[in-house]
Each structure stands twice: as C-alpha cells, then as structure tokens.
Design a protein that fits this description.
CATH topology of the largest domain in chain B: Rossmann fold
Strand order of the largest sheet of chain A: 2-1-5-4-3
Largest sheet of chain B: 5 strands, parallel
Structural class of chain B: alpha/beta
Distance between the termini of chain B: 16 Å
Shape of chain A: rod-shaped
Low-confidence stretches of chain A: none
CATH class of the largest domain in chain A: Alpha Beta
Number of helices of chain B: 8
Strand order of the largest sheet of chain B: 2-1-3-4-5
Oligomer: heterodimer
Mean pLDDT of chain A: 81
Number of strands of chain B: 12
Number of strands of chain A: 12
CATH superfamily of the largest domain in chain B: Response regulator
Low-confidence stretches of chain B: none
Radius of gyration of chain A: 58 Å
Strand content of chain A: 15-25%
CATH topology of the largest domain in chain A: Beta-Lactamase
Structural class of chain A: alpha+beta
Number of domains of chain B: 2
CATH architecture of the largest domain in chain B: 3-Layer(aba) Sandwich
Helix content of chain B: 40-55%
Mean pLDDT of chain B: 83
Helix content of chain A: 55-70%
CATH architecture of the largest domain in chain A: 2-Layer Sandwich
CATH class of the largest domain in chain B: Alpha Beta
Shape of chain B: elongated
Largest interface: A-B, 27 and 29 residues
Chain lengths: ~475, ~220
C-alpha cells in the first residue's frame, strides 16, 4: 500500500473512532438529561395526583366501613382525577385501569430499574423511597412507568408516559451524526491524501533521481527547497550524487588513460617486432652476403635492446605510479646539486662526446642543495638532458641550471611546436616519431620526468621557441 | 618479374628489410624515407613505377595524402601499417589502395601480395610468360615443363610445388607454406608428403643441387 494511502487511512480511521466515541457519550448524556426532565414532570404529576387523591379520599374516609366501600370510593375518586395513563391498585389488585394497557405491579416492583442517576436532572420534584420506576417496552413503544403507594391506605397509583419518541429522536440523532461523520471522513480522506501526496513529493523526486543514477546518469540532482528534514535528505542525496559522479569520472579518466597507454604500447612494440621478425626470417630463408648477415644481426640486437630499454622505463613508470608522495618523502635527503649534475654528465658523457655538445652547469647562490631522492633526481636530469641533446645539433650548448625556484635544462635545439607542448608528457607521445625512434627514444622520458617531479611535489614546465631553443623547468 | 617498386617507409631498418626481400625475389626496389621526398620525386615525373608500398604514418606528407598522387600516375598502392584496426583498413581500401599489409608481416605474405597486385594490374597488357631456370622451362598457363626442349611429364601437385619454388627462387619455402598454397589453409597434411614431392622433382629435372634443403625450415631453389 502506498504511504499516502496508509497515512490518510490511519488518520481518518482514528478520527472516525474518536468522533463516534464522543458522539455516543454525548448522545447518552443528552438522553439522560431529557429522560430526567420527563421524569421530573412525571414525578410532579404523580405527586399532585397522589396528594389530590389522598385528600379527596380522606374527606369521606370515616364513612367507609368496609373494604368494599373503600374500593368503591377509591375507584370513584381516581376516575374523577385521571383521564388516561394511569392505573389504581388496591392491596396489590388492579382496581381501575384507564390506560388500555396491562401492567404487572409485582413484576414492576421486583424489577424496578435503578434510575437514581436521573435524580440530578430532577428540578424541584421530590423523589421518594417507596417509588418504583421502570422503563418498559410494550408493542414497540417505550414507556416510563412510575408507581407509588398512597400513604395510610392500601391504594397504590401507577402512572406511565410514552417516551418512544424520545428514544427514536435519539436514534435519529445518532444516525445523522454517524452519516455526517462518514461524509466528513471521506472528505478528510481526499483532502489528507492530497496534502500527504504534496508533502511526499520530494520523496518521489528522490526515488526517480536515484533510479536515474542507478541507470548511469550521474548528473541528476534533486531540488533543495525549504528547511524541513526532506531538504536535509535532498542535500545529502545531492552530495552523494556529486561524489559518485566525481569518482566515476575519475575512474573513467584513469581507464581511458590506461587504454591509451596500452594502445600506444602495442603500437610502439610493432615497429621493433616487424624488424626483428623480418630480419630473422630473412636470415633463415635467404642466403645473404656476410656483410648483410652482420647488418641483419646487429639490427636484431639493436631492436631487442630498444625493447628492453622500453620495458625498463615502463617498469620504472609503473613503479612510480604506485608510489605516493609520502613514500618518497621518507627517502628524501639533502642532496648536493653539484654532485647530481656531475652524475648526470657522467651518464651522458658518451653521447655528449659523440655529438660534440658542451654541457654547461651553473648553481646559483642559495641553491646548492635540494631535498629529494637521489636516484630519481638523476633519472629526471638525465632524461631532460638527453632530450635536449637529441634536439640539439652538434657543437651547440646544453645548460643545466639550479636556482632557488627550481632546476632547468635548456638547449639551442630545434624546439617544440606550440600545439604539441600540452601532449609531450603523455606516455609514448613523440613529436617526430621517426627521428625520435632513430635516436633510440621510446617516448616515455618526459612522462617519467613529469611523474618524478609530481612525486616530489614539484611541477614540470616546458617552454619552447620552435627552431631556436627549449627550456624544461622543474619548479619547486 | 621485372618490376620497379617504390618503398615509402620512414623506419630505415624496415625499409631496408623490404628492399632486400623484394630484390631477392627479383624486383627492383627504390626506397624513400619521407613523404615529402617521395612526393617531390613523383612530381618530377621522370620514372615510371609498377607498384608502391606505402607506410601510413610518415614524416611530412602521410600515406593518405600521398595516395591520390600515386593513383594519379596509375601506380597501384599496397598500404603498409602498424594500425590493423578495421576503420583504417576500410579507409585505405576505399581511397584506392589495392591491398593492405599489417605489421609485423611475413616475407612470403609480402611477396605474394606484391605478386598478386602486379598480376591484377598488368593482366590486360601482358600475357603470362614462361619461367626459365637453367635449361628448364615452365609454362604456368599450359602447365608444361620442358628440360632442354623436351617435355617432361609432371603430376599436378609436383607441378605446383615446382612453380612455387621457381616463383620465389632464392627464398626458402617452408613445408607448411607448401601445404597452405597447394592444399589450402585448412589442410592438416603430413609435411612428409612435401619431401616426397620434392624428391621426385629433383629426380625428374636432375635438380639435386639446385633445390637445396635448409634443415628444419624447408626448401630453396638456388639460382645465381
């Protein structure tokens, strides 16, 4: 069952219950009151009748010698005073009945109703102890029956009043009240369900929004209006959706990056593989001259070396990707920049000599030391200097400089076109593929440098003027 | 077999490899390492070529840019690329390449594709001629073998074996390749069958020394 229906039904049910209980109590009180007033008037009537009767009978009482006379006189007096609704008894025997109904006095006396609670409704009528009262029913009529003995005689008077109407009216009132309550309940039910539905509207929005999110649309947000608890829920829901969206997006980005890396790797492997396979096949199938055989073998060796370099760099990149800044900072030491530069020069010595390039180093004042991991920093400098070397023509100068703001490597080489600058730190990205490959590059150097700089909390920035110079700067 | 083939590929070792392969099979290969260079050479329009092997990713003009220039001069093109994905293949073929070769490729695959493209593009002009090895003449059309002018009876399988060896002379043909070419790719035959056929061919033509056995690889018909 829907929440709206539940809440409305519960509210209406409770209301009906309480209103009925109240109306029943109320009707009962009203009835008692009216009964009391009827009783009061009946009692007064009975009192007056009884007084008149006893006065009249006492007039000639001394003349009545026997019981028969008393009966006769009593009946005559009674008939003079009463026109209807009464019965006269003598010594428990019915003497005169002008009511048209039969009453059993003994039964009345034995089964008299206790109507004492009606006493509070009596106005000034007197209630007396020897009175018997009963609400009886005969032929579908309700009667209030009262009987009282006449003092000092054997006579007894019974008097009744038809109160069917009173009961009927009461029942009508009850029914009308019930009907009214029912109609009100229906109206209330409709109104309440509308109101509750309105109140619960944010819940429906939440549910449809979460369904959309479950379906993959993470950009959905719900309205945050008002200041009630539902708004709080909506706020936390939106916060959750934002988080989920962020997480999913970053996951997708990582995924995309890795997919690109894998694709680039597969592509990068194809060129050496083609060569190795081709030359091996050539050696196997064709009788080549000694010279050509040597060429083929050296090519195979060269390409295998390139592959192993590639895998070494990939492994390093992979390892660095797994490390966090905290892990690096644990291995950080204060290093002398001069030593780092010397180490770099030693590693590149052979190529420097080959291309006749001069490596100038410069350490500014206050920049003699740097905090970092020695192996990683040498790797960073070597990679940057190696790039500078490859871009330079023979006889030019490559500079390694340390300042307070950072380290930089600059060259007077061919430079990098502006539109390529943003992409050069991507793994396997090469500005000039065939040249780079010929120089033995794998396209991983700058990706590595970027990673190392990031792990130290620094950033790598590259500026270039195509055809003139390039400057790769690590900013602290 | 005398065909001039352009090899436009930037990776020098691979370019050389292809040239060696083509020259071994008797073609004349002209290497280019750069798209612009090749384009300039074509523009001069002096030489006439029968086929071009064209790399897609080139410095300067790339393969797709060079393709129309080659087509303009009626030079059929075989694309040579590391990109084996379907969209690239379809694009290459749609724009008029005759065939597509994905790196890394096998030597025989390269040669067969080259041969097929040349055959297709020449068909109308020239008749398939008879092949000669020493004093032996092989006519593929009539399926006849003559040694010193005398016709020697050959069974169909033996003839196909001989034709393969002669077509790719100086190159080792693997036993599996014999099986593939002669019986189709799915045939899972005994490689021993090939040995038997080769023995018969040697005997019939007195080619004991000409058809060399290369241990663990296959056979090679050597002519210098």
């Amino acid at each position: 069952m829907k929440l709206t229906t539940k809440i409305s039904a519960a509210a209406v049910g409770l209301l009906l219950l309480f209103s009925q209980i109240f109306s029943i109590w109320n009707l009962r009180e009203t009835q008692q009151m009216r009964l009391g007033s009827v009783m009061s008037s009946e009692l007064t009537r009975l009192n007056i009748s009884a007084r008149n009767f006893s006065e009249e009978i006492s007039h000639n009482w001394s003349y009545l010698k026997d019981e028969k006379g008393e009966r006769f006189w009593g009946r005559s007096c009674f008939q003079n005073h009463y026109s209807a609704n009464a019965v006269l008894y003598y010594d428990g025997e019915e003497l005169s009945n002008i009511s048209g109904l039969e009453f059993d006095l003994d039964y009345l006396k034995k089964h008299a109703d206790d109507l004492s609670e009606l006493q509070k409704y009596l106005d000034d009528a007197v209630w007396y102890g020897s009175l018997s009262a009963m609400i009886g029913e005969t032929e579908g009529r309700k009667l209030l029956i009262l009987s009282a003995p006449i003092s000092d005689t054997k006579f007894e008077l019974l008097q009744y009043r038809d109160i069917t109407k009173l009961y009927e009216e009461n029942r009508k009132l009850f029914l009308r009240g019930g009907m009214m309550a029912l109609i009100l309940a229906v109206i209330l039910l409709l109104a309440l369900s509308l109101v509750v539905q309105h109140i619960l509207r944010p819940f429906r929005h939440l549910s449809s929004a979460s369904a959309k999110i479950a379906g993959g649309d993470y950009s959905v947000r719900v309205e945050e209006r008002g200041r009630d608890e539902l708004t709080e829920v909506a706020k936390s829901f939106n916060e959750m959706a934002r988080q989920v969206q962020g997480q999913v997006q970053s996951l997708a980005e990582t995924n995309e990056k890795q997919r690109r890396l894998l694709g680039a790797l597969a592509h990068e492997l194809k060129t050496p593989m083609t060569g190795i396979q081709g030359y091996a096949e050539l050696l196997q199938r064709v009788e080549l001259s000694k010279e050509r055989q040597q060429e083929a073998l050296s090519y195979i060796e060269q390409e295998c070396k390139r592959l192993s370099r590639l895998s070494a760099k990939l492994l390093q990149l992979e390892e660095l990707a797994g490390e966090s800044e905290e892990e690096i900072s644990a291995e950080k030491k204060t290093l002398e920049v001069k030593k780092l530069f010397a180490e770099t020069e030693k590693l590149l010595h052979r190529w420097l000599a080959e291309k006749e390039i001069c490596l100038e180093t410069e350490v500014a004042e206050g920049a003699e030391t740097v905090e970092g991991d020695a192996d990683l920093l040498v790797s960073l400098l070597t990679n940057l200097a190696d790039n500078a070397l490859k871009a330079s023509s023979s006889g030019s100068v490559v500079r390694l400089v340390a300042t307070k703001e950072g380290l930089f490597v600059s060259d007077e080489g061919k430079g990098i076109p502006k539109e390529e600058l943003a992409k050069i730190t991507e793994p396997f990205y090469m500005v000039d593929k065939s040249r780079s490959r010929q120089a033995g590059g794998a396209g991983l150097g700058l990706a590595l440098c970027d990673q190392i700089a990031r792990l130290h909390g620094w950033s790598l920035r590259i500026e270039s003027e195509p055809g003139r110079r390039t400057k790769a700067e690590v900013c602290f | 077999m005398n065909a001039d083939i352009l090899v436009i590929e930037d990776a020098r070792p691979i370019n050389e490899l292809i040239c060696i392969n083509l020259e071994t099979a008797g073609y004349h290969a002209i290497p280019f390492y750069d798209g612009d260079e090749a384009s300039r050479h074509l523009a001069e329009g002096e030489a006439d070529y029968d086929l071009a092997l064209l790399d897609v990713m080139l410095p300067g003009k790339d393969g797709f840019e060079l393709l129309p220039e080659l087509r303009e001069r009626q030079i059929p093109v075989i694309f040579l690329t590391a990109r084996g994905d379907l969209p690239s293949k379809i694009k290459g073929l749609r724009e008029g390449a005759e065939d597509y070769l994905v790196k890394p490729f096998e030597m025989l695959e390269l040669l067969v594709r080259v041969e097929k493209v040349l055959e297709r593009c020449r068909k109308s002009e020239e008749q398939e001629e008879c092949l000669r090895v020493l004093d032996v003449e092989i006519c593929p059309k009539e399926r006849i073998v003559r040694k010193a002018g005398v016709e020697i009876p050959f069974k169909p399988m033996e003839f196909d074996c001989l034709l393969l060896l002669v077509k790719y002379k100086n190159i080792v043909i693997r036993r599996e390749e014999f099986l593939n070419v002669l019986w189709g790719v799915d045939f899972e035959g005994e490689t021993r069958t090939i040995d038997v056929h080769i023995a018969r061919i040697r005997k019939k033509l007195d080619f004991g020394d000409v058809i060399k056995t290369v241990p663990r690889v296959g056979y090679r018909l050597e002519v210098h």
